[in-house]
Each structure stands twice: as C-alpha cells, then as structure tokens.
C-alpha cells in the first residue's frame, strides 16, 4: 500500500518535471518553427504549432540580403583563435605556476587571482582607448587579443596540475625530458577531459560574447554574429520569420557543440564555477 | 625538488653548470610569459589606467587633463547615476535569489530522474548556451504584444518591455529563463556529492522525506548555495546585454542600469573620464556588496 502511494507521488513528480522541461524549451521550439513559416503564416491567429511543409524562404532571404555569411566567418575566426590561444597559454601558465619555481612566481599568481575578480566591462573605456590608439578598432586583433586573457582558465589548469602526483614529473625529469615535453606528453594527456571541457566552454563563451564586439567594432563587415544580427532587426523592422531564421542560424554552432559534447560542457561550466 | 631540473641538466653537461643554471632559472618564465604579457597589457594596465582616467576630463580618444576629484563630485550630484544604481539594485533583487532558488528546485527535480534525465537536463540548460541576442529575439517574439504566443495563450496584450512597471521584471524573467541552467548544474553537482549513506541511515532511524530533506540536503547543499548566491550577485550587478537589447534603458529611462549609463556617457557622449569614474563605482559597489554577503553567509554557516 505504502509502496504504491510512493510510486504515484514519484510519477507525479516525473510528470511535473517533464511539463516544466517542455515549457522551458518551448520558446526555442517556437522560434525554430516560426523560422520555417512564411511571414503571413507567422501572424495567423490561432497560430499553427506544427507548420507543414516547412518553408525556407526566411533563411534564403537572410543569407542573400545581409552579410550574414561574412559575420559567420568573422565569428568563427575570432572564436577559434581565442579558444586556441587562451587554452594554450592557459595550459602553459598553469603548468609554470603549478610545477616550476622561479623568482616572481607568487607575484604572478596573486595578480592573476586579483585580475580574475575584476569585471571586464569596467575596463572597457581604457581598453577601447588603448586599442583605438593602436588603430585596432574594427580589426581582428582588436576583437581577439583582449578576449584571450581569461585568468580563470589559468587558475583551473593550475589547480588540476597541482593534483597530478609528483612522481610522474620526477620520473620524466630523471629520463631527461624537458618541461615542454612533460607538459604536452604527460600533464596534458592526464588532464585531457578538463582541457577539452575548458576549450568547449571558451568557444561557446567567445561565440556568444556581445559586450566586447559591440565596443570594438562598428563597421558592418567586421561585426560578429551576436552584434550583427541586431542590425538585421533594425533594417527590416518587424519580420518575425526572418528574425527567427537569424536566431536559428546564430545558435547552430553553440547548440550543436552543446548537444555533441553535453558531458564536457557540464564539466567545464562546473570547473569554471569553482567546484571540481 | 626545485633543484632537480638543474641537477639533472648539470649531470649531463658537466662544465656548463653555471651557464645552464641561469638559463634554467629563466626558462620557467617562458611558460608564464605569453599569458602574463597579455594579462599585463589587456587587464592590469587598463585596471590602473581606469583609476587614473577617473581623475581626468578625458574624452573617449584619451585626450584630456587632470581635474582632481571633479568627476567624483559630479557623480555624487548626478541624479541619473543614482537612478541607474537603484535600477541595478532592483534587477539584482529580482534575479539573484529567485534564480538561485529556481536552480535548486530544478536540480531537485532533475536528480530524481533516471531515463529522462539527460533530456530534461538539456531542456533546462540549452537556453544558457544561446547568444544573448538570440535570447532577446526569442523574448521579443514570444512576448510580442500582438502576435506573441504568451499573450495569445493568455488572451492579453501586455507590451512587456514597453511598460515601465513590467519592463524590469520581464527582463529579469528572461534572464532567469536564460541562465538558470547553470545554477541547476552547480546544485546537481552539489547534490551528487552528498553521500547516499546519510539518507539510508536517516531512513533506518525513521526520518521521513521531509525531515531528510531539511536535516541532510539543506545543510549539506549550503556551501554550494552560498557559492551560487555569490556568483549570481557579482554577475547580475554587471547587467548590460539584456537591457541593451530588450529595452535600451526605456521606457522613460526606467531600466537604465549602471553599465548602460557608463556606455552612454563613455561611448555615446564621449566622456571617457566620467565613464571611468562610473565603472570604478560599479567595481566598488560589487566589492562592498560581495563582502557583506560573504560575511552574512559565513555567520549563518557558523551559527549552525
């Protein structure tokens, strides 16, 4: 009797969870199907929840009439470059701080910890001035360089390297391996999962970054997707199918990355928040 | 331990010991330097520079001269600035605790699931990985006054982002929809760290579900909860993107937050020095409020 009551309670809980999950994902479903309607269909009342056949006019229109492909390329260039260098430099710096002893080490680590707590947006004014001075507004270096500095990835890598047993490194040193070899042949493979997770999280974060590209770019050909797509809205006024098609196109890379690497994304965001 | 590298190198190259040791001493800097050089250039230097700029009447190109505390005096009497502080505080109130509680609730629901787990987890987390511009497009479409599905289903025609009373709560709701997945993940990680034996032992002792939740889950999840609260607090004070995209500070400037005010003063009015002062005040506010929260949460923890 008691067992049965509990299973009913459990079923209700599952039902509630499922209902909430579907409600949570509904807006994403809604923009996806709206992007597959014609403009006339989007404002029909009552709206259709399963439009058939799907219409791709909105996608074609967006791709043909806006520099969307150019922005896509910009965003890929920026995200991939930022991810590669911030992970590479993060690994190196994390290894140096964790395993090597050198004059100034504590100063470096302390200043990185302080830097981690500074909000990036508060530095926008002097950063803009500096990059403006070097004529880097509306350029790839201007978009990329400040975003490579992610103190958090250094801190995360240092913490993970701290946990690697010392015997591994000592044994390798005995065999005459250089520190570069030790980092890339021992420490990196041992921490492959977290490196991969950090890379994915950095990629998604850079792809989605809105604030810095907004500050450092204003010429249409140099915009990234998150900033560029807001210009489409301004140009077309209210055209729901096209706005939704833009949103779908803009989300494909990050959404696909998440769906493919769900576990790594989870691990990455948890590591970034400070819980291992 | 630190001399191991030097020793092994000296063993292999007897006679070159001294030369090697200087090289060995500086070699570690090669690991640290690529990151640290960029760090100094793009983080440490701007951080110092922003302090200096706040004492100048510099424009956004950096041209200007020292004017002492004038910016701070102006700021103190600037009603628009204090209004932006109040709006930011309002947004923080609307998001920090609700977002944390919602994350906890969703985590409790999700960890119970077995077969559906990955699916429901993805549903709650997926919005978090979308660009903010997609989030604002989605919100604008779903909440459209005339054709938005929410108003159609509810039979209303609220203009959520154009109504002074609704705008900020609507932005807060959108923010929670967007970011709650992160909090949920952190709580799930925390819940999984609680040893299952505690619950089994308590069940044997006759504690019911409610008591187990109150006396095992709640105290053991508290460290994660206080971390989430702190992260949320710091994050939400920096509100800019959603406001910029959804309301642009309107209606009637009722949603102008501190960073939007900084953006307007600095990048639209060209007052670089004044914008730097606003930015510094935001950093100061974040530090003070974080310290207060840290204090309060720790006291609570100690008194248990």
How does this model look, in words?
- The complex is a heterodimer of chains A (276) and B (304).
- Helices cover 76% and strands 0% of the residues of chain A.
- Chain A is mainly α and 276 residues long.
- Chain A is globular and about 75 Å long.
- Chain B is an all-alpha fold and 304 residues long.
- Chain B folds into two domains: 18-71, no CATH class; 79-303, MetI-like fold (Orthogonal Bundle).
- Helices cover 74% and strands 0% of the residues of chain B.
- Chain B has helices at 4-12, 17-53, 70-76, 79-112, 117-125, 132-142, 149-154, 167-192, 196-204, 209-237, 241-246, 258-268, 272-303.
- In chain B, helix 4 (79-112) packs across helix 8 (167-192).
- The longest helix of chain B is centred in the first third of the chain and has 37 residues, at 17-53.
- Chain B starts with a helix and ends with a helix.
- The model of chain B is unreliable at 1-17 (pLDDT under 50).
- The chains are: A mainly alpha (276), B mainly alpha (304).
- Chains A and B meet through helix 1, helix 4, helix 5, helix 6 and helix 7 of A and helix 1, helix 2, helix 4, helix 5 and helix 6 of B.
């Amino acid at each position: 009797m008691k067992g049965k009551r509990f299973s009913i309670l459990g079923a209700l809980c599952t039902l509630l969870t499922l209902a909430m999950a579907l409600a949570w994902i509904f807006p994403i479903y809604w923009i996806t199907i709206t992007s597959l309607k014609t403009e006339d269909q989007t404002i029909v009342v009552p709206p259709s929840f399963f439009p058939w056949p799907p219409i791709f006019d909105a996608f074609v229109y967006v791709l043909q009439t806006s520099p969307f492909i150019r922005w896509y390329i910009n965003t890929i260039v920026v995200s991939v470059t930022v991810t590669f260098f911030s992970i590479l430099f993060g690994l190196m710096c994390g290894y140096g701080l964790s395993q090597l002893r050198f004059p100034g080490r504590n100063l470096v680590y302390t200043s990185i910890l302080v830097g981690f707590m500074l909000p990036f947006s508060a530095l926008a004014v002097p950063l803009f001035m500096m990059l403006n001075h070097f004529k880097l507004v509306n350029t790839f270096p201007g978009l990329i360089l400040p975003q490579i500095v992610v103190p958090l990835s250094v801190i995360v890598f240092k913490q993970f390297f701290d946990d690697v047993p010392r015997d591994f490194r000592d044994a390798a040193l005995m065999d005459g391996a250089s520190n570069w070899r030790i980092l890339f042949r021992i420490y990196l493979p041992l921490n492959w999962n977290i490196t991969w997770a950090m890379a994915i999280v950095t990629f998604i974060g850079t792809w989605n970054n809105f604030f810095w590209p907004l500050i450092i770019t204003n010429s249409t050909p140099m915009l990234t997707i998150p900033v560029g797509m807001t210009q489409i809205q301004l140009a077309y006024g209210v055209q729901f199918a096209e706005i939704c098609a833009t949103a779908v196109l803009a989300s494909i890379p990050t959404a696909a990355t998440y769906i493919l690497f769900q576990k790594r994304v989870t691990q990455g965001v948890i590591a970034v928040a400070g819980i291992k | 331990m630190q001399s191991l590298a030097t020793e092994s190198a000296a063993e292999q190259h007897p006679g070159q010991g001294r030369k090697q040791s200087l090289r060995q001493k500086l070699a570690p800097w090669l690991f640290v330097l690529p990151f640290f050089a960029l760090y100094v250039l793009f983080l440490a230097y701007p951080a110092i520079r922003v302090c200096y700029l706040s004492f100048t009447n510099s424009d956004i190109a950096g041209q200007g001269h020292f004017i002492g505390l004038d910016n701070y005096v102006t700021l103190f009497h600037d009603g628009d600035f204090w209004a932006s502080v109040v709006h930011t505080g309002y947004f923080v109130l609307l998001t920090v605790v609700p977002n944390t509680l919602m994350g906890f609730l969703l985590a409790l629901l999700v960890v119970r699931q077995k077969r559906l787990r990955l699916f429901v987890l993805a549903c709650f987390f997926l919005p978090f990985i979308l660009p903010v511009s997609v989030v604002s497009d989605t919100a604008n479409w779903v909440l459209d006054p005339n054709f938005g599905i929410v108003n159609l289903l509810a039979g209303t025609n609220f203009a959520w982002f154009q109504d002074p009373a609704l705008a900020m709560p609507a932005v807060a709701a959108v923010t929670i929809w967007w970011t709650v997945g992160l909090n949920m993940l952190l709580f799930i990680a925390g819940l999984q760290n609680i040893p299952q034996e505690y619950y089994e032992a308590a069940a044997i002792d006759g504690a019911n579900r409610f008591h187990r939740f109150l006396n095992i889950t709640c105290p053991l999840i508290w460290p994660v909860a206080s971390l989430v609260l702190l992260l949320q607090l710091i994050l939400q004070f920096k509100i800019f993107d959603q406001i910029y995209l959804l309301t642009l500070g309107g209606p009637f400037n009722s949603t102008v937050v501190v960073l939007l005010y900084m953006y307007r003063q600095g990048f639209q009015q060209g007052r670089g020095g004044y914008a730097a002062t606003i930015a510094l005040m935001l950093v100061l506010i974040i530090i003070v409020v974080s310290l207060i929260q840290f204090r309060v949460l720790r006291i609570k923890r100690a008194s248990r």
